[in-house]
């Protein structure tokens, strides 16, 4: 075999190549930004557990559970990185059925607040399968759109992607979980746009979606969901109801100033004024205790992470890799914008978590798996660009 033939060998023959050479393509920047964000999530979990004289190392504390989830997420990241991502393409359709199965199981035996079905308890740990379903949805769409590269000016190809997302989105909406269902829609929109789909047909579909809003508002959304969605317009108008969370969040953000009150010293955190302060509204406590500077640093880390994800996507020689990276970036960007926007009062309250920082095992594990798949794509396609 000549030298030219050796150079032409496919990258997917990774198991037969030198491990050290391949792992030099590992994108350390991407992993570092994600680790720093996850570390900040643990810091906020510690603050939440230790505020008002609490013991962060007490059994069952938010901080100790966070450490456990972080350790599991690290294992998932390493396994996903070592796993040959090409198998995901091969088993794309079984994964789609598995995704639907997880969501159906959640509806059947799941538990939640106010009669909702969002979490499934396994060995004492609660899993939100909709978080895992988001990554599986990106895999399925990446395979579908990647296989149709150059043919997405067709309305039928675009509708095919919409039909794929429809069932899981509906199953999540039935839980009911409006925020996560919106994330599914954002993943679809972002991947279609980045795939080069016809802007004309995308505009038509966007128009149809907008025209259906009155029907969804009247017949699909529940009263409390409508109240939360409109609370940001006038939080003072319903301080005993839907506006309470937003008003307390704005107090927390505003009182932090430039440099914050210090870790565990936030009054909204210690006095438990702000509901769900370690989940959907954790950014408000972060801004209160670490200040505007801390909040800006967090947003900057997200921007850097999304940039590295897109760099990996654009550098992929495989359409599947490009689409997967775009889907992952769209998901993280949408959740960042909506979560921060709802905390500072410029966007509706939708219950969308802040990736890595919000306390939640399923979210962190699914993100670790997604980033691991992206690293798998990188190390099988060449050296990361610095």
Number of E-type strands? 2
Count of helical stretches: 17
Classify the secondary structure makeup into a structural class: mainly alpha
Mean pLDDT: 84
* Rg (C-alpha, Å): 21 Å
Overall 3D shape: globular
**What's the quaternary structure here?**
single chain
Strand content: under 5%
* SSE string: HHHHHHEEHHHHHHHHHHH
**First-last Cα distance:** 33 Å
Uncertain runs are: 1-17
Strand order of the largest sheet: 1-2
Helical coverage, percent range: 55-70%
**Integer count of domains:** 1
Characterize the largest beta sheet: strand count, sense, and whether it forms a barrel.
Answer: 2 strands, antiparallel
Overview features:
386 residues, two-stranded antiparallel ribbon, mainly alpha
Task: Describe, in plain words, how this protein is organized in 3D.
By secondary structure, the chain is mainly alpha-helical. The chain has one domain (22-379). The protein contains 17 helices and 2 strands. It has helices spanning 3-7, 19-23, 28-50, 62-82, 86-90, 92-109, 129-146, 155-173, 178-194, 199-211, 213-220, 223-231, 243-255, 267-270, 282-315, 319-344, 361-379, and strands at 120-122, 125-127. The chain has a two-stranded antiparallel ribbon with strand order 1-2. Strand 1 (120-122) and strand 2 form a beta hairpin. The longest helix is centred in the last third of the chain and has 34 residues, at 282-315.
């Amino acid at each position: 075999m000549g030298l030219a033939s050796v150079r032409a060998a496919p990258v997917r023959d990774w198991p037969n190549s030198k491990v050290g050479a391949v792992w030099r393509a590992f994108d350390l920047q991407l992993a570092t930004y994600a680790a720093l964000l996850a570390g900040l999530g643990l810091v906020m979990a510690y603050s939440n557990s230790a505020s008002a004289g609490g013991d962060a190392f007490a059994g069952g504390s938010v901080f100790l559970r966070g450490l456990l989830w972080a350790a599991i997420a690290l294992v998932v990241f390493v396994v996903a990185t070592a796993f040959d991502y090409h198998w995901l393409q091969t088993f794309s359709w079984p994964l789609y059925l598995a995704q639907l199965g997880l969501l159906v199981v959640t509806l059947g035996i799941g538990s939640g607040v106010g009669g909702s079905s969002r979490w499934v308890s396994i060995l004492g740990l609660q899993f939100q399968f909709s978080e895992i379903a988001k990554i599986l949805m990106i895999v399925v769409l990446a395979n579908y759109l990647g296989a149709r590269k150059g043919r997405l000016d067709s309305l039928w190809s675009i509708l095919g992607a919409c039909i794929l997302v429809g069932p899981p989105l509906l199953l999540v909406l039935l839980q009911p979980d409006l925020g996560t269902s919106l994330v599914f829609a954002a993943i679809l929109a972002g991947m279609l746009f980045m795939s080069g789909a016809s802007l004309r047909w995308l505009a038509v579909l966007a128009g149809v979606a907008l025209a259906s809003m009155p029907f969804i508002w009247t017949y699909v959304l529940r009263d409390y969901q409508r109240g939360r969605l409109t609370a940001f317009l006038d939080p003072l108008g319903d301080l005993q109801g839907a506006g309470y969370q937003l008003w307390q969040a704005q107090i927390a953000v505003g009182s932090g100033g430039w440099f914050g009150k210090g870790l565990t010293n936030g009054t909204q955190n210690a006095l438990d004024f702000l509901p769900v302060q370690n989940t959907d509204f954790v950014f408000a406590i972060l801004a209160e205790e670490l200040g505007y500077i801390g909040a800006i640093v967090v947003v900057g880390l997200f921007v850097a992470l999304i940039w590295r994800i897109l760099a990996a996507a654009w550098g992929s020689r495989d359409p599947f890799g490009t689409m997967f990276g775009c889907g992952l970036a769209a998901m993280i960007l949408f959740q960042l914008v909506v979560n921060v926007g709802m905390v500072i009062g410029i966007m509706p309250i939708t219950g969308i978590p802040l990736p890595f920082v919000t306390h939640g095992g399923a979210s962190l594990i699914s993100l670790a798996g997604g980033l691991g798949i992206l690293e798998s794509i990188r190390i099988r396609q060449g050296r990361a660009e610095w």
